[in-house]
User: Fold these one by one.
Assistant:
Number 1:
Amino acid sequence: MLRSVLERLVVEDLGEWDDSSTIVPDTKAEALIFSRERCVISGLEEAGDIMGYFGLEQEPFVSEGDELSADAEVMRVRGQAKAILQGERLALNFLSRMSGIATLTHDCVRKAGKVRVACTRKTTPGFRIFEKKAVVAGGGDPHRLSLSDAVIIKDNHLKLMGLENAILTARSKTSFTKKIEVEVENLKDLLKAVEMKAEIIMFDNMKPAEIQKGVDLLEVKGLRENVILEASGGIKPENIAEYASTGVDVISLGALTKMANWIDFSLEIERCL
């Protein structure tokens, strides 16, 4: 974690007058962080950075992406008792949020079978890198980290420019290193975009049956191998398997970050040193 980011988060949590910690005796202690429920763990590095900022030693017992049962031991922390309490909530918040995303991602990946599961840019402002890292820990794909990573021609581009003009303009102005992806909502636009050699097609808010028709159409015309197919919009953990059965290569869903529950972690002082 960048030092500047870490310091901003610490200042936010401690405030200007931390009497809660100043009343703690000047002694060293040992504490244990553990999970209170089943999860796929993420945020270990960040929790370690936070504890390290306060001068604490850390001894992790698990690795990023491990599947944990309830009451699993995650990390032992040693050092000044005051510092342990100061780092506690911030470290647990990272573990809770990131592990929640990793756990939901893992469950979706299992349901999707061989189809790649990706997140979206529907992330918490200022926390995107951590949320996307958690998706990776759960076995998912981070998709674009920012608008600069690839060109996605979306519905509003099409309303402003038209499909053909948008693709031609993107091709002329975009570096050869960037892929061009086009959102389509019907089979006519699908064929046009593939014929114009868009590298990725996103079936946007289309039902599984309609997506299946699109995949079959490309197969019949001998165009299926020329493009990566992505389904997105209206996809949730409850219906992801249905979308995975259509023959697409990637399923992207904002639910990985929007619907993820926080995992319950605790830190308990075990003994004074």
Number 2:
Amino acid sequence: MTPPRPSRVLLIGVSNPLGVEVARRLAPHVDYLFGCDLKDPISALEEMDFVHADTRHAVIGKLIRQLQVDTVVHLAVMVDSPHDQRSIHETDVIGMMNVLTGCSAPSSRVRKLIVKSSQAIYGAGPTDPSFFSEDMTNVERPASSVTRDLLDMEQLASEFALRNESCQVSVLRLGFRVSEDTTLARYLSLPVVPTFAGFDPRLQLLHEDDAADAIVRAVLGAHPGVFNVAADGVVLLSQAIAIMGGRAAPILPPYGRWMARLAMRALTRVEVQAHLADVIAFGSVSDGSRLEAAFGWKPVYSSRAVMDGLARGKDLEVIEAPSPPQEYELQVYLQRRRREARNGHRSVPILEAHK
């Protein structure tokens, strides 16, 4: 059965390139598109009404209810972030709780929830299987703080789906990406790349374009459940370094990776999070067959193609350059005028929704 077309969509987490690109692609398909984040989007989008809001506060629930949205796309999930562990936990776990509270309120009209998760939920270790399917998360073994937060976040989403059968919940575990602002890209772009002695792990990489496409397809389709969004193929760490024109330096000890992370930061000034250090040591590959079967689609770019694109110096972000402040203010003004004309009267600024 064809799902009802989303009409009023709220995108949570639109200040980054992925969020803005998802908004740009969704705009022609929905009647009302709202966006919220702590910071302004990096590029103005006239078709999206934007408001500053923080998922760590209960105000996000009020925003969901007052905007009468039928679809929530939760992208404000930190994985590759310079923030401290407490901030990441508050954003990923507490933020998820507040979003779900807003979606489950008696006055809520939300019938579809899409949550951005990450392949980092599997962690990485020496006894890992050849690939991870969606059912292979392990809450028993020691894990990085990011992996634990993702497990908690997805557990909250799963419990919400069981309690709210009228709301379709889709969780997308996006693969690791190497756009220019990611830690993994900065690490692989070093002229001399410190690696763990005796290890040459498999890397599976996801193009930003495919990540945005998967999210939009989840919004417009009917695909409840948990899905790996994984590219075809892998590249070995040594191959990735060679593609980038660098030289591998196997100088990091294979154990005591927290000490190795300190050494790497001192040598390269690249802060590698614990979960990424594990991936650099042991690799991580996930199975995307469930996504392909349900969506009738799979990522276009292979892992090798993603690395080749980065090596050619192409910006893998599919979004335009950041808008100058004057242009952004102009877009906001035009957006307000368009909304007033559509409603036939002077509209109440959306900013009042979270006062």
Number 3:
Amino acid sequence: MFKLLQQKADGIRQETLKLHLLCPETRIASSLSCIEILTVLYYGKIVKFDSKNIFAEDRDRFIISKGHGSIGMYPILADLGFFDKNELQKIGKEGSFLGGIPDPIIPGYETINGSLGNGLGVACGLALALKQKKLTSKVFVLVGDGELNEGSIWEAVMFASHHKLDNLILIIDNNKASMLDFCRNIINLEPLEEKFKVFNWEVFRVEGHNCQKLYKLFVKVKNSHDDKSKVIIADTIKGKGVPRLENDPLSHIKTLKKDEVELLLKGSE
């Protein structure tokens, strides 16, 4: 199973690179760091969904706060039947619902969060509403580590703790780089675990490119019931799979050339 998940992640990474070729304005480095996270959530059946009934009341909610960095969701949603695979070839073109930045009109995306830092607050509202309705669905939210500089994130962290939102699971794509530098040079938030523990969250840390470790932890966290919100710090590499982008403090704003992508794809065959 874990080998298949890793193979699927490798395939999604290739498809994401192909989408970048078609639509160069996509944020490729940010999208490559969370491929395994997205793959395990969906193909590992961690997130409960129905691609034929996308607004099913008993579905889990997945809020992607780092929307710009989730282009890898496009091939996943197409493969799972949320929309026709032919739509992938139209990305960035007039009339397509697939753009360089995701929009909530895309089947499978729950919300649009505008400025970074708002996704966790939206997720808190959903989690509280589900609890009040006595529904057992979970709310997953994916944020980038650079987003943690936003005060709105920490307001939501306090809100979740106060309301004991144990149905809320925050996943941090901890790729250690934001738009213009490494995060440690802008605002160093380490030790990150201690900050969430202060607010009475249950904290986990995991290797974010290891499908086996991600799967086992996601299962454990989803089945945990202790009146605490959960945070998973997934240590990742920005631009994973593209040597020129990995460990580049400016990878966030860089675009790959056609010949670069073609060489990468050829090397992964």
